[in-house]
Structures are given as structure tokens and as C-alpha cells.
Design goal:
With 420 residues, the protein is an alpha/beta fold. Helix content is 32%, strand content 20%. Helix 1 crosses helix 4 (143-153) and helix 8 crosses helix 13. The protein is globular and about 65 Å long. The structure holds adenosine-5'-diphosphate.
Length: 420
């Protein structure tokens, strides 16, 4: 039997997952528990049930006696209120809920520095402020914080990655004064540690689920940072492209890059900064213009060696944020050739060009050059697209080790453990 050394728990949008890794980062067991109803995503009790189920599944698959560390990641920006007994007050406010109270958004915009990731209509700080107004609230925490509290942290403790969009200041390593002016009572917010920092030993509930008393609990991260780590990307210059509905680029950098006009901000993860940007282009354009049912047939007819020169900028509607910041930027999808395989290739080449421009933009803003690239998301399955992209980007393409955020969070624990 293989003995896992680290466990990562992922609180995702569809359920809870857990990954157990051995000392070398190899996955020895995996567990998943889907939410029974879509509404459970708002219910802290359902998150905890999912954690219990996943840890029980892991314990049934592998011995947990030698697990040395555990951490939790959650959807970035999902917040909940707790009473003085650390019990949830009502339901959580989700990461993608636009703030229903315009005066809260306005107060944040008035108080926050121009480059703050807490700005905008889907601000996590806005959710924190709304939650703080509920009756009987003693703490406002992030999704992952509460699960970590139950697993042993006890007190409200968060990590810099989850806290970033709630307004935490990474340079001062504290909740800044302006948060009070925006309407948030700072004493309600959790203490914040660096992602992967040691919190302490696991608690009774974790031990009852089979974790040994010697197992340590570490500060977690967001699902986004965890997904990056899951791929095996680990050093400055390592990049990850997500070819999902949207095109998302991430790059490990030796310095923070913040460019709010491009929607770029940086997370501190271990010994690097994780810099990222998201384009409005991506697979959603393919889905709409080509359709899933024709992908296989048309992919077989692609000719990556012969460029179409169509010079498309595939968007579903005008407006782009990154790598070009222009709310009115027009889609470029004409002329449309008679052969749909050529049309498809033009779209793929166009998205690949946006990817190239994206890494170039990150570099122009101070990030290092891309030195290796891993690819995740639905589009990663297309070998011809891979070739088009490889020709354009000119760096080694590496296989993603895992696409499970839970595995990335376990990898964060291992990185920490290996330092000792
Ligand atoms: P999401 O971001 O919604 O989680 P996925 O990672 O599941 O998306 O990727 C789905 C997207 O990938 C769709 O937009 C689809 O058009 C695109 N896609 C799936 N398979 C291919 C393929 N073989 N070639 C190009 N695009 C693909």
C-alpha cells in the first residue's frame, strides 16, 4: 500500500473533492462528493458533509496514519457569516453573486485604492460587508476558512489568496484602514496567513475522520491558485493556459504585477507570484460558431502547418479586457471561408494569437518570459490546436500533472513540508 503524505480538500462549484498525494507528489487516492442539489453550494453544512464523505472515502482507500499535512481551497470570494459560537448565520454569499446593493459597491470604490482587487460589482468585500450586517454576526470568513476552522484551526484564520479580493493588503500584510471607510468592521475579518503557512495540529473532528494527531493543518488557497499548482507548474516562468469557455493565462512570476485596467492582479503562492489575465475570447466562441458535434470531424481536417492568415480576433460580442483593454473592441471573424475546417482553423489560430499576445502583455508589465507551458480545459484535447499554439509560442509544452484543484492544494502542503 502507498501511504499518502498530504491531503488537499477542494470546495468547488459542483461539490467537494479530496486528493491524497505521496511524498513525491504522486496521487495515491482521490475522492469526490457532488452536491445533492445546486442550492447546496450556498449551504455551509453541505460543504462539511462533502468533506466528511471525501475523507471517509480516502480512509477506506488508503491508510491515513502517515498523513503529515492537510489544507483546504475554496471558490474565491464565497463568503459566510458566523456567530460567536462559530456557527453559520444563514447561507453563504457566492463567489459569482453580483453585489445587490449599489451603495456598497460605491462605498468600496470611493475608499479603495485604484488598483485594489476588491473593486468591481462582484466584489468579495461587498459580500463581506453585507454579511456583517446580519443579526448576531461575530465573524465574516471565506468558504475555505470555515472548513479549516472545523478541521482544527478553531479561530477564524484565512490565507492571502482567499483574502486578496476581500481587500487584504499584501505589502503591509494586514487588513488596510480603508476597509473601515468602505463599511467593513475589520475585527470581524479573519487573521490572515500566507498560503501554505502552518496553522497547527488538526482537531478532534479531523481525528475522528481518521487523520493522525500528528497531522498538521496549513493555510489553504483559492481554487484558481490550486488549479495552477495541480498542473505541476512550480517555478518562475512556468505558465498554464486554460482553454475553457474563456481563455485564461497564468504565469509564475518573480514579482507582483498589478494592472487593473487589464484585470491583472497577483497572488503570492509559496515562493513566487501567480500572475494572471482572462480574455473574453475562448471556447465559448467555438461552441457558438462551430458547435460541439462537429469538432471531431473538423479537427481531423485541420492543417496546422499551413496558416490560414485569416487574422481573426474571435469574440462573441464587442469588448475585451486582456490582452487588449478596450470595452468596445470589435470581434474579427470575417471573411468566412467556404470550408468550415478552414474557418475553424482561423478561429483556433486567432485564439492562439491572443494567447501569445497575452504572455507578451504580462512580460511588458514586468512578468518574466514564459519558459514552459501546460494546458488545461476542454480545448487541451485538440492535438492540432496544440501544434498551432506550439508553433506560435515557441516554448516546451508539458503535460499537466493533474487538473484537480484538490491535488494542487495537497501539493501546496508538500511544498511546505519539504522546506522543513
Ligand atoms: P469551462 O470553462 O466551461 O469549464 P471546459 O474546460 O469544459 O469549459 O471547455 C469547454 C470548451 O472547450 C467549450 O467551449 C468547447 O467549445 C471547447 N472545446 C472542447 N473540445 C474542443 C476541441 N476538441 N477543440 C477545440 N475546442 C474544444
Amino acid at each position: 500500500t502507498e501511504y499518502p503524505a498530504a491531503i488537499g480538500i477542494d470546495l468547488g462549484t459542483s461539490g467537494v473533492r479530496a486528493a491524497a498525494l505521496d511524498r513525491d507528489g504522486g496521487q495515491v487516492a482521490f475522492a469526490a462528493s457532488a452536491f445533492a442539489t445546486p442550492h447546496e453550494i450556498c449551504e455551509p453544512a453541505a460543504w462539511w458533509r462533502g468533506v466528511e464523505i471525501c475523507l471517509k472515502i480516502l480512509a477506506a482507500k488508503v491508510p491515513l496514519a502517515q498523513v503529515r499535512g492537510l489544507a483546504v481551497d475554496g471558490t474565491s470570494g464565497t463568503m459566510l457569516a458566523l456567530d460567536s459560537d462559530k456557527q453559520p448565520v444563514g447561507e453563504a454569499l457566492l463567489y459569482n453573486d453580483p453585489c445587490p446593493d449599489a451603495s456598497v459597491v460605491a462605498a468600496i470604490d470611493a475608499a479603495a485604492p485604484a488598483a485594489s482587487p476588491a473593486r468591481g460589482t462582484s466584489t468579495a468585500l461587498g459580500r463581506a460587508i453585507l454579511l456583517s450586517r446580519r443579526r448576531g454576526v461575530a465573524h465574516v470568513v471565506h468558504q475555505a476558512d470555515w472548513i479549516a476552522m472545523r478541521l482544527g484551526a478553531g479561530e477564524p484564520i484565512s490565507d492571502e489568496n482567499n483574502a486578496l479580493k476581500t481587500g487584504y493588503d499584501l505589502s503591509c500584510e494586514s487588513w488596510p484602514d480603508w476597509i473601515e471607510r468602505a463599511g467593513m468592521a475589520r475585527h470581524l475579518l479573519p487573521r490572515v496567513l500566507r498560503a501554505g503557512a502552518k496553522i497547527g495540529s488538526v482537531g478532534r473532528l479531523a481525528r475522528e475522520l481518521g487523520l493522525p494527531p500528528s497531522c498538521l493543518l496549513f493555510a489553504g488557497t483559492t481554487d484558481g491558485c490550486a488549479s495552477f499548482l495541480a498542473t505541476g507548474a512550480s517555478k518562475v516562468g512556468d505558465g498554464v493556459t486554460a482553454l475553457g469557455s474563456t481563455l485564461v493565462l497564468k504565469l509564475a512570476s518573480d514579482r507582483a504585477v498589478d494592472a487593473p485596467q487589464y484585470g491583472i492582479y497577483s497572488h503570492r503562492v509559496g515562493d513566487f507570484w501567480l500572475v494572471g489575465g482572462a480574455s473574453n475570447s475562448g471556447g465559448a466562441v467555438i461552441r457558438q460558431l462551430i458547435g460541439d458535434e462537429r469538432l471531431a470531424e473538423l479537427t481531423a481536417r485541420l492543417d496546422p502547418a499551413r496558416r490560414t492568415k485569416l487574422d481573426y480576433y474571435p469574440l462573441l460580442k464587442p469588448g475585451e479586457r486582456f490582452p487588449i483593454n478596450d470595452p468596445h473592441y470589435p470581434p474579427r471573424l470575417a471573411p468566412r471561408p467556404a470550408d468550415d475546417a478552414v474557418f475553424f482553423q482561423g478561429i483556433l489560430e486567432g485564439i492562439a494569437e491572443i494567447e501569445r499576445l497575452g504572455f507578451e502583455r504580462l512580460m511588458a508589465l514586468g512578468a518574466p518570459a514564459l519558459t514552459s507551458l501546460r494546458t488545461v480545459g476542454g480545448g487541451a484535447r485538440n492535438p492540432a490546436w496544440q501544434e498551432i499554439r506550439r508553433n506560435k509560442l515557441g516554448v516546451p509544452f508539458l503535460e499537466a500533472r493533474s487538473t484537480e484543484a484538490a491535488a494542487g492544494t495537497a501539493a501546496l502542503v508538500l511544498r511546505q513540508e519539504n522546506k522543513h
